[in-house]
Design goal:
CATH topology of the largest domain: Glutaredoxin
Number of strands: 8
Radius of gyration: 23 Å
Shape: elongated
Distance between the termini: 46 Å
Number of domains: 2
Structural class: alpha/beta
Pfam family, one: BTB_2
Organism: Aceria tosichella
Protein name: BTB/POZ domain-containing protein KCTD2
Order of helices and strands: EEHEHHHEHEHHEEEHHH
GO biological process, one term: protein homooligomerization
Strand order of the largest sheet: 4-6-5-7-8
CATH architecture of the largest domain: 3-Layer(aba) Sandwich
Helix content: 25-40%
InterPro entries: BACURD1-3, BTB/POZ_dom, SKP1/BTB/POZ_sf, T1-type_BTB
Number of helices: 10
């Protein structure tokens, strides 16, 4: 049965579009829902149910109708990234590239100088702009030290997460620094050293005189698809940073 109109129920968001809208993007996973071998609808009044967050599905359909209809200037970085995640799920390469280009253009317009981002005054976080100073702070600290990579924070557009991460730290037992050094030198020369673009967070233990934990910087594609999982992982990292069983806790599912 060749049904001209398609109704979608995506996370309880209801949408209807013409079959031709879906067929414009033959490489999209949405095309599979209307293929005869998969389409189980009896009439155009039946819905195709997709178990996803439907917040941006209307935007996705509008983009498929007319690619010129999408204007992202007033969108937040988080919303654009969420839209990219959904576009990736539906295999809409054109939409992914458009969002990615917009984020890159926005970042280019903004200053690349870390001075333009300030940690709120009531937070105990310091920006460190020199790799040699960072090494000295690590080697002289009596408490564990969390090091956040400003380069990675900017890369994934997660500046807004930084304040949340700080709230999960016990500053009586850990220090928190954000490394904004632009060189590719390792932070400290030990058995586990990192360049500032290699990680999101790293934890230094003065008793062991080395890093005991880290969250590596993933590919852009992986971060987009696992964005909320990474947010949870980063918050857990900060929350457990002072714990003696840190390594075991971070290995727990």
């Amino acid at each position: 049965m060749n049904l001209n109109y398609v109704r979608f129920d995506v996370g309880h968001y209801l949408h209807v579009c013409h079959r031709n809208t879906i067929e414009k993007f033959p490489n999209s996973s949405l095309i599979n829902y209307i293929k005869p071998e998969f389409d189980t609808r009896k009439s155009e009044l039946d819905y195709i149910v997709i178990d996803r967050d439907g917040k941006h599905f209307g935007t996705i359909l509008n983009f498929m109708r007319d690619q010129r209809s999408l204007h992202l200037n007033n969108w937040t970085k988080d919303d654009i990234t969420d839209l990219m995640t959904e576009a990736d799920y539906y295999c809409l390469t054109e939409l992914i590239e458009l969002c990615d280009q917009h984020l890159n253009d926005r970042e280019t317009r903004e200053s690349n100088d870390p001075d333009d981002y300030r940690i709120p005054k009531n937070r105990k976080v310091e920006m460190v702009f020199d790799i040699h100073l960072m090494r000295e702070l690590l080697l002289t600290s009596k408490k564990r030290v969390i090091v956040a990579s400003f380069k990675s924070i900017r890369r994934y557009h997660i500046e807004s997460w930084l304040e949340k991460l700080v709230k999960f730290c016990d500053f009586s037992k850990v220090n928190f620094y954000c490394l904004a050094d632009k060189t590719n030198e390792p932070i400290i020369c030990d058995q586990r050293s990192y360049n500032s673009g290699d990680f999101l967070l790293a934890l230094y233990d003065p008793e062991r005189k080395g890093f005991i934990g880290y969250i590596t910087a993933p590919t852009d594609e992986r971060f987009r698809s696992k964005r909320y999982r990474y947010k949870t992982k980063l918050l857990t990292f900060c929350f457990c940073s002072h714990n003696e069983n840190f390594c075991e806790l971070m290995k727990s599912p």
